[in-house]
Amino acid sequence: MPYRPRAGGGRAPLYRLAATMEGMSSPSGDQGAAPATPAPYIEKLRAPWWLWLVSYALCVAVGLALSPTNALLCTVISVVAAIIVTVLFVASAPSIIITQDTLQVGRARIERRFLGEATGFAGDGARYERGRGLNGLAFMSFRGWIDPVVKVIIEDPNDSTPYWIFSTKHPERVSAALGGAMSTQDVPSL
Hints:
Blueprint lengths: L13 H10 L17 E4 L4 H18 L4 H22 L2 E4 L3 E4 L2 E4 L3 E7 L2 H7 L8 E3 L7 E6 L8 E5 L3 H7 L3 E2 L8
Parallel strand pairs: 5-9, 6-8
Antiparallel strand pairs: 1-2, 2-3, 3-4, 5-7, 7-8
């Protein structure tokens, strides 16, 4: 089918093109790829309200420090700083996405066939796993304002990473989605 420009003269967005191509039949008679299965678990690790409040207060302080005598310039500097902080907070908030085939934490992704036991930790267990019990070769994705963590053993013989450990607000849900459970072991004494 030849390319036909839209009425506005521009090209169709890629998502429309991909949707159109999925419906086209292939030479073998198949009707495109099977629809994607929904993710059994998705969690976005956003910054808490108090961190936003402190950050915006610092933006006002920066505006006052850089322009203490000009109210308009102070306001402009504060607003620009607040926009920068907002963009950084939104862009740096990692997601935990667990599908039937993959585990994704932030930008890191691994196929589930390489995953072993998944264990959730909260309280003292989480502090131990993030501190004294941590292996320096592990993949880590921590957020200081989120205490619980999930530890997933990596069973890929070609990967030197022993496990992934990452912060989550709901370790029991993440562990269950990966076929694991919460830890019931006592924390080694300090």
